[in-house]
Write a structure and sequence with these properties.
- With 476 residues, the protein is of the alpha+beta class.
- It has helices spanning 25-95, 101-115, 199-203, 236-246, 292-298, 300-348, 367-373, 384-389, 393-408, 459-464; strands at residues 120-126, 132-137, 165-169, 172-179, 187-193, 213-217, 223-228, 261-266, 269-276, 281-288, 351-357, 362-365, 382-383, 413-421, 427-438, 444-453.
- It has three domains: 30-291, no CATH class; 299-348; 350-456, Beta-Lactamase (2-Layer Sandwich).
- It contains ten helices and 16 strands.
- Strands 13-12-11-16-15-14 form a six-stranded antiparallel β-sheet, sandwiched between helices.
- α1 packs antiparallel against α2 (101-115) and α1 (25-95) runs antiparallel to α6.
- The protein is rod-shaped, with a radius of gyration of 54 Å.
- The relative contact order is 0.09.
- Mean pLDDT is 81; it is low at 1-12 and 467-471.
Length: 476
């Protein structure tokens, strides 16, 4: 048998291990879907936050509008009282006994002139029996025959408590009050208001945004005058909501009709009420919380710009991540190919490889090393001292010195001959080549040792027996 022939090893190739690549198409699609879903969720959260902010802004605007509207309504009420007091002497003179028809016409004309710049268009004077005695000013046609004496509150029980403000036609109201007379006996009068009366106080509700409504209520909670935004109206549901917020306790002559200030909310509808003229009137404002669709429609360009920027940012981030993952996967594949090429090279050259991790002090043996020196039984990872124990005692000191020189950095490569013990206990001479791998700090991190068996040509055997002579058996 030819002892120089290498040991037979299985005829096998090297197959790369399949790894889970980060740039896998399925994984990338999952990342893209997750990023898109995250972007959409972010936009929804942002939309809800914007809706909440707009709702709070509308609520705050409605509260401020109610405060301003209360002042405006008080001012309009004061103007009504001032107009009545200014016209009272002229009306008393016209109603005085002995006043000629010409004097009455002159006085009525003067009253009309005095009422022209005021919210009052006409004043109807009633007798103690409740009959209309005289009309001063311009009486609108839509209220002719509809105004009677001062009505009583339906909610005052058995007590007679008159209403100060009542509706007389669509968009028009009558304001009842007593006019002082020279004899000290006041007369009851109804001030017919213009259609724009109290509208400045009601229109302030527009500050609350779309869907606003406003109304001026009397002691009974009747909506005497109303105002609203486009395609809206102060209806019975709003009146019921305001009445529920106010509570409307039973009325007595010495009590206020309702709370001076009320703020409430019900199912996205806001209510603000303020007392006017000592509680005889209530100015009420109703607003709606904006919907998500209305907010999106109002800020569509802002949302489109934000959504577009978010999508671009997500796509850019995904592109950067994908490129980085692809680069990492290429490096991993290249490293696997290099490792496979090194393994094939060592197998073809009948070499064994030992990988020494300096930090751990552990050595790993390649399959080729196991085939050559361990009869295919690949040993587990061992400590460096276990490997040195495999070296022949006569070669161990030289090997230690060579390894130490590589660890200290004075030598980066080594080539020497030594004998190592196989698993069978026999010694085999090998040529060992080594190279150190340093880290970024310059310190040695790993040492790779490659061992090949030295060819046997019989010269050592001849040298060992060169001085010996065999006896001549035939000479005996």
């Amino acid at each position: 048998m030819n002892t120089n022939a290498p040991s037979e090893r299985p005829n096998r190739g090297v197959q790369l291990t399949r790894r889970l690549e980060r740039s896998d198409p399925f994984l990338m699609r999952a990342v893209q879907a997750a990023a898109l879903i995250g972007c959409i969720l972010g936009m929804l959260i942002y939309s809800l936050q914007v809706v909440r902010e707009d709702t709070q802004a509308n609520r705050s605007a409605l509260t401020k509008a109610a405060a301003v509207g209360q002042v405006a309504a008080e001012a309009d009420t004061a103007r009504l009282d001032a107009a009545a007091l200014e016209a009272a002497p002229l009306i008393a003179a016209a109603l005085a006994e002995g006043a000629s028809p010409a004097a009455q016409r002159t006085l009525k004309a003067s009253v009309s002139e005095r009422l022209a710049p005021t919210p009052v268009t006409a004043i109807i004077v009633f007798s103690p029996r409740g009959e209309a005695v005289s009309v001063f000013g311009q009486l609108p046609a839509d209220v002719a025959g509809t105004i009677g004496p001062r009505p009583s509150s339906r909610r005052a029980g058995n007590e007679l408590l008159g209403l100060e403000l009542v509706p007389v036609s669509k968009g028009r109201a009558a304001y009842y009050r007593d006019l002082p007379m020279p004899d000290g006996q006041p007369v009851q009068a109804a001030l017919v208001l213009r259609k724009d009366a109290f509208q400045s106080a009601l229109q302030i509700g527009a500050a609350a945004g779309n869907g606003w409504r406003a109304a001026l209520l009397n002691r009974d909670g009747d909506a005497v005058l109303t105002a609203a935004g486009d395609q809206r109206a102060f209806d019975q549901a709003d009146a019921a909501l305001v009445g529920s917020a106010l509570g409307w306790p039973p009325l007595h002559a010495d009590e206020s009709s309702a709370a001076g200030r009320v703020s409430g909310q019900q199912s996205g509808t806001f209510v603000e009420t303020r007392a006017v003229a000592g509680g005889m009137l209530q100015v009420a404002y109703v607003g709606e919380a904006p919907s998500v669709l209305s907010v999106l429609a109002a800020r569509r360009y802002q949302f489109l710009a934000l959504f577009g920027a978010s999508i671009l940012a997500v796509l850019l981030a995904i592109s950067v991540v994908q490129n980085e993952w692809q680069r990492h996967d290429r490096h991993v594949r290249d490293a696997d190919l290099i490792a496979a090429r090194a393994e094939i090279t060592c197998d073809l050259l009948a070499a064994g490889v030992i990988d020494w991790s300096v930090a751990d002090g552990v050595v790993d043996y390649s399959e080729g090393w196991a085939d050559m020196f361990s009869q295919g039984d690949e040993p587990a990872s061992e400590e460096i001292f276990d490997w040195i124990a495999r070296i022949h005692p006569d070669d161990r000191l030289a090997a230690r010195e060579a390894y130490q020189a590589m660890l200290e950095g004075t030598q980066s490569e080594l080539v020497h001959r030594m004998r190592i013990r196989m698993s069978s206990g026999l010694w085999v001479q090998v040529v060992e080549r080594g190279r150190a791998i340093a880290g970024v700090d310059g310190r040695v991190k790993r040492i790779v040792l490659v061992q090949t068996t030295e060819p046997v040509d019989g010269s050592a055997l001849r040298n060992a027996f060169g001085g010996l002579t065999l006896p001549d058996v035939r000479a005996g």
